[in-house]
Amino acid sequence: MQHKNAADALTIENLHVSVETTPILKGIDLCVPRGAVHALMGPNGSGKSTLANTLMGHPSYEVTAGDITFKGTDVLSLTTDERSRLGMFLAFQYPSEITGVRVANFLRMALNARREKEISAMDFRKLLLEKMSLLQMDAKFANRYLNDGFSGGEKKRSEILQLAVLEPEIAILDETDSGLDVDALRIVANGVNKLRTESMGILLITHYQRLLDYIEPDVVHVLMDGQVVREGDKSLALELDESGYETARAGIPTTQGA
After folding, report:
1. Is the pLDDT score of 163 beyond 70?
2. pTM tops 0.85, yes or no
């Protein structure tokens, strides 16, 4: 599948990352064009969440070598908020609870932080209701405290609502399927599919193939021991589901066109 915005891709080259001097990522090369969905799969402890947090500038993760660029900009030279304003977004595996801050107020503050001119309360309410309608969410959800008392599925839907409102150009979804039952998984996946456009690239990080039954990737990457050991199309995810990750070590890496 060819994508129009390859020049604006998220590009990761020879990325090495350590946590408290322990090497976690050991030379990652990855390119996610806008308009494409790339799935990053791997067993627990392979470095998937390390990559997600590094992309958004978490201070606990030290980049010891390599480069990350997006839209031709050196991402590593930017603070987390600057990365967000550049068009990057991270949906967390374990979203935090913020008691006393309503979902609507949080989203408006987050949106204004990315804009040069603040959006009016009226325009924001219109935008929020449009996005909630698109995602088939009850408008009352916006008045709840952020993730306070939310079920696992509600927390992930809250993350997808943020994605809808902020409209990033690259979305990193870190194990969005974690802890979800089949019904919640389907709801969250449908939300992501409704937001897919040629203007947004998606890096979908997951441990299981089941999410890819609902969100079809253009390319699948397999991460093991901090390295991408295999690449392929969506059939690779099915192969992993049947044979396990260890079989990926013996596979010959293939380069997929974006």
Report:
1. yes
2. yes
- The one-character DSSP state at 129 is H
For 35, left (φ over 0), alpha (ψ -120 to 50), or beta?
A: left
For residue 22, what is the enclosing H or E element?
strand 22-34
Q: Is the pLDDT of residue 5 over 60?
A: no
For the chain, domains (ranges, CATH) are 5-250 (3.40.50.300)
State the alpha helices, DSSP H only, in the chain. 48-55, 80-86, 103-113, 121-134, 152-166, 182-195, 234-243, 246-250
- What's the sign of the alpha-carbon dihedral 121, 123, 127, 130? positive
pLDDT of residue 4: 46
Look at residues 107, 176, 180, 179 and name the one whose alpha carbon lies nearest to residue 145.
107
Q: What does the alpha-carbon distance between residue 142 and residue 118 come to, in Å, rounded to a whole number?
A: 19
C-alpha to C-alpha distance for 74 and 83, rounded to whole angstroms: 10
